[in-house]
Amino acid sequence: MPPINEYKCSKCGFSLQRGWGGYKYVEADAALINERISKLSEVMEMLEKINQKITEEERVIENLTRDISDLMRGFEDLGLEGLEWRRGIRDKYDVLHASTPQFVRFNQEVDLLSKQKRELKRIEKRLRMRDQEEIRVECPHPGELDTVMLVLGRNAAPDLIKERAGFNSHCVCLDCLHQFDADLRDEIANQWRLYYDAPDGVTFFRGLKKLFAVNEKCIPREVWKGISEDWKKDGRKCPQCGSSNVKTAFELIGEPCPKCKEGTIEEIARGIVC
Ligand SMILES: [Zn+2]
Ligand SMILES: [Zn+2]
Ligand SMILES: [Zn+2]
User: Fold this and answer.
1) How far is the CA of 187 from the centre of ligand 2 (A)?
2) pLDDT at 66
3) Taking residues 245-263, what's their average pLDDT?
4) Of 62, 55, 140, which Cα lies nearest the Cα of 102?
5) What is the rounded distance in angstroms from the CA atom of residue 235 to the CA atom of residue 221?
6) How much distance in Å is there from the Cα of 7 to the middle of ligand 3?
7) What residues does 259 pair with on adjacent strands?
8) How far is CA 172 from CA 221, 237, 249, in A?
9) Which of 101, 202, 225, 247 is spaced 20 to 30 A from 211 at the CA atom?
10) Res. 16: pLDDT tops 90
11) 28 to each of 35, 109, 181, 198, how far by Cα in Å?
12) Predicted ipTM?
């Protein structure tokens, strides 16, 4: 259960985004989203066809039930133990309730898929409007994984999830005061980043191994690059002024206010979200 905090200057009213320092995200690009949409459409088409068949089947069963009832009435008219026989065949085959539950479940499936398709179309529209190759889709709490699965698919491989999902921290540039979100992965003190997507032990040791594998005094640039790409997602760099003097909300707690330089940034608890 993450907290809802406010991050504010004790003096001047400067504030950062409220919440728990950031949010989980999953990266989406046009190729991926379009593939997901076309796959979904395929499955929905198939379901639609099956639904039609079930409807036909229901009609057949309805007719059959009527025919059998008529037949049983015929037996009764002939005095051939009609009543007992009717009970017998009803218990044996349950003709009346043959396919209704499956039918309802299938309809719910179509509803769920159309909802997913609508959400994917929204993401696709955002990609088009911003004219960006890739966007980070926020995964709201709770149910972060649902959004991840929506974008990557229910059967997404763990490696793909690791590659595409992350945690965007609320950041501020100490030089120009621009506020933005970035996945730094080296920030201090945010336990929620650990809970979500901190680099794990495997990534850490993979980096160490790469370092030890170098048989030279000076570690080549590409090796450093490989390690930091594994480890980091974004650099500490303000997208507005280019300054590397960037801090996250969590790192500013107890630090001087970047705006008035007199007050201190305080964390004020405002409850928790389940
Ligand atoms: Zn201030
Ligand atoms: Zn800046
Ligand atoms: Zn919760």
Assistant:
1) 18
2) 84
3) 94
4) 55
5) 16
6) 21
7) none
8) 29, 10, 7
9) 247
10) yes
11) 11, 24, 16, 20
12) 0.76
